[in-house]
Sequence to fold (205 residues):
Amino acid sequence: PYCGDGSVDTTYGEQCDLGTAGNTGAYGGCTAQCKLAGSCGDGIKNGSEQCDDGINNGAPADRCDASCNLKCGNGVVDPGEQCDDGSTNNTGGYGKCNMNCTFGPRCGDGVKSGSEQCDDGTNNGSYGTCDMDCTLAPYCGDGVKSGPEQCDNGSANSVTAYGPGQCTAACAIAPYCGDGIVETAYGEQCDGGSGCTADCQFTIQ
Fold:
């Protein structure tokens, strides 16, 4: 017996034998010394293999499939991956999947990015928070009376608002002459009652 006779003589340490003409050392074949050439599953990345984790190839949590190709990029969300849009589409960027099959910036990740108006992660649309599409939910200053607001004049809301129809920065009705409260900060001397004028000043006798 000899290496090249086409018979695997394990007694002499041969792992393979494809004959003299076949023992070329080609990938997946046999070397001239009758040893296995590089192949998928030997734990060494050879030839066109993308990876080779030996006996772990194809295991659910392993990065390598049974054919020594990376699972990330195959278009299937395998265990341990957050996303997988395929090798040509895992380009990263807003709303895209990264090359390592993790999410890129997106609506709902709790970080305001891209064209998002907001992103608190929960995005349940409750007052003062964020909608599911990362646009602002109703809030004080949007010009629409909603939630606990008494009023909302949008950009006209002001911390110094005073007068009928005016609105404070907290979306509360602004003080005004006639509300029954004497607002001395706004020059009122009185507000209703005997001797009080329509402009909240005492009648001069």
